[in-house]
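Input sequence (74 aa), recorded before submission:
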Amino acid sequence: MQNDRDIELLKQRVSRLTAALEDVNFECQRLEIINSNLDFQLREANRELNQNIAVLQSLEEENERLKEKLKEFE
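Predicted structure, token format:
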């Protein structure tokens, strides 16, 4: 009888552990999706940042050219 009870307890534990493992796997999948979305957002933000840097550099160069022209008129 003790063996039957031990086996039943082990089955219950295995069942709980299996359910917990399924929960963990689901959470991992959810986090992978979140990570993928964040990675996409980061790449998009970096692309926009690089575009903004290029625009600022262009404006800075134009500003320097205008300063030089202004000096010619003084």
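Checked by second reader. The two ends are 107 Å apart (CA to CA).
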